[in-house]
């Protein structure tokens, strides 16, 4: 058995003769004078930027036959991302804060938008300048209800329109709910629009599909976010959807989402738990996985059918647009006295405002909410719609099909869908001829898995 800690020389009599084993040893830094760290040291002393990319000996990386985009340089040439295989296998980008994952996502969108429609999901509003660069319309999630976001996503797919969804200034649960509504609109489109391929770039994905809920009250919202993003990844391929998601920590992102990713790009990691999980994804042992601590911003190990067969260290190429979320320079506090600080804060006015503020009335729920629902004119039709949608869950149907199936007037169906949408029981869109609806993710989790695709 080979010693896991031994440092080899190529002149050693027992140096492995198999090329694949040699490459693994070099990448793990176990061949004297070779490997990523040795190459960087040589580059620094020689002052040759090109040398820092020579990470591993071996044949040049092949260029994909179909549409592809260049990501950056490796020791074996330029690494390309095969867009056809990306559509089939999705991609995960992970790295600690400052690793360069947002820059990688930005570069990927800049290069890919000429090949397919691009949707940018932006929890921190860092990509608005990128949206302007690629001609994407910006949607402020604070300005639209969930059903409006579902409709906007569906129409964007129909007309092949790039979008930038700004999820900033939302509470955590509202951010998850509105992102889930948008994803539902991307999925619930007629089959004739499946050919309108779309790249969905999701930044800070752990905010939308967290591994754990912050409290018992947030658990249901978390299940909604996880179920919807997992649905987007698992069912997206046949519907022409290619998710690329970025996250700070693997431990923060739901494991069901990570398990759907066939292509991975992993950057700087600090915590042992993240290094272990990242090493498992790359097939690294513990010694080689520790090299993730030494990566510099913009360096990633890439691996997967759309990237390369073996984990390869790549230096991501520069972006065209400026990164808005860069770490600010250090600025000292203002040179003021305590009295001047109190004056700038205007604390006396804040105390007066606090005393004059009216108490917040509690939100009524429980039986009163149920009573209000039952007294609605469209409550009976709403119950029948839920039963019909449950029979075909997780698929969607149109308001016209519901009216025909239930033998009800179209206006009554629209009224019942409005009622169900306000209660968060269905994912739907504003009234219109193309209105669609399906059970919300919350109810789909409790429903059956019947293999029915449409109403009769």
Care to describe what's here?
The chain has helices at residues 19-27, 36-46, 83-89, 101-112, 128-134, 146-159, 172-187, 219-235, 255-258, 272-282, 286-289, 338-345, 347-356, 367-374, 379-392, 399-406, 410-422, 441-444; strands at residues 68-74, 77-82, 91-94, 117-122, 137-140, 163-166, 198-202, 241-247, 263-266, 299-304, 308-316, 397-398, 426-428, 436-439. It folds into three domains: 1-34, no CATH class; 68-316, P-loop containing nucleotide triphosphate hydrolases (Rossmann fold, 3-Layer(aba) Sandwich), CATH 3.40.50.300; 379-444, Orthogonal Bundle (Arc Repressor Mutant, subunit A). It has 456 residues and is α/β, with parallel strands linked by helices. Helix content is 39%, strand content 16%. Mean pLDDT is 83; it is low at 41-56, 357-364 and 448-452. It has an eleven-stranded mixed β-sheet with strand order 2-1-11-10-9-3-8-7-4-6-5, with helices on both faces. The protein has a three-stranded antiparallel β-sheet with strand order 12-14-13, sandwiched between helices. A hairpin with a 3-residue loop joins strand 10 (299-304) and strand 11 (308-316). The protein is built from 18 helices and 14 strands.
């Amino acid at each position: 058995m080979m010693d896991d800690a031994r440092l080899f020389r190529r002149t050693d009599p027992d140096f492995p003769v198999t090329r694949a084993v040699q490459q693994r040893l070099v990448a793990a830094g176990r061949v004297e004078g070779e490997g990523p760290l040795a190459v960087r040291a040589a580059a620094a002393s020689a002052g040759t930027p090109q040398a820092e990319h020579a990470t591993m000996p071996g044949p040049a990386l092949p260029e994909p036959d179909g549409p592809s985009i260049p990501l950056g340089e490796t020791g074996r040439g330029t690494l390309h991302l095969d867009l056809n295989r990306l559509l089939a296998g999705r991609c995960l980008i992970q790295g600690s804060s400052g690793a360069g994952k947002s820059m990688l996502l930005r570069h990927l969108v800049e290069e890919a938008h000429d090949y397919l429609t691009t949707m940018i999901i932006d929890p921190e509003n860092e990509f608005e300048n990128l949206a302007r660069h690629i001609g994407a319309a910006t949607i402020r999630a604070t300005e639209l209800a969930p059903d409006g976001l579902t409709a906007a996503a569906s129409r964007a797919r129909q007309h092949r329109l790039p979008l930038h969804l700004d999820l900033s200034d939302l509470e955590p649960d509202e951010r998850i709910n509105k992102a889930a509504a948008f994803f539902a609109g991307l999925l619930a489109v007629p089959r004739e629009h499946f050919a309108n391929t779309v790249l969905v770039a999701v930044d800070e994905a752990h905010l939308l599909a967290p591994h754990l809920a912050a409290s018992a009250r947030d658990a249901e919202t978390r299940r909604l976010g996880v179920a919807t993003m997992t649905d987007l990844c698992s069912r997206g391929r046949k519907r022409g959807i290619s998710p690329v998601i970025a996250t700070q920590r693997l431990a923060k992102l739901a494991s069901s989402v990570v398990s759907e990713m066939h292509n991975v790009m992993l950057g700087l990691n600090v915590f042992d738990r993240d290094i272990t999980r990242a090493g498992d994804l790359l097939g690294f042992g513990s010694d080689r996985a520790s090299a993730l601590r030494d990566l510099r911003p913009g360096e990633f190990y890439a691996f997967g059918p759309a990237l390369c067969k073996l984990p390869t260290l790549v230096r991501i190429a520069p972006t065209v647009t400026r990164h808005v979320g860069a770490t600010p320079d250090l600025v000292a506090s203002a040179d003021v006295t305590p009295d001047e600080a109190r004056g700038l804060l205007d604390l006396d006015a804040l105390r007066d405002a606090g005393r004059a503020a009216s108490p917040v009335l509690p939100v009524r729920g429980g039986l009163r909410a149920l009573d209000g629902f039952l007294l609605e004119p469209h409550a009976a039709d709403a119950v029948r719609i839920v039963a019909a949608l449950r029979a075909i869950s997780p698929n969607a149907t149109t308001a016209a099909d519901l009216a025909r199936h239930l033998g009800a007037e179209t206006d009554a169906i629209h009224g019942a869908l409005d009622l169900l949408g306000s209660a968060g029981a269905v994912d739907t869109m504003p009234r219109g001829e193309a209105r669609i609806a399906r059970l919300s993710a919350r109810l789909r989790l409790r429903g059956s898995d019947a293999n029915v695709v449409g109403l009769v």
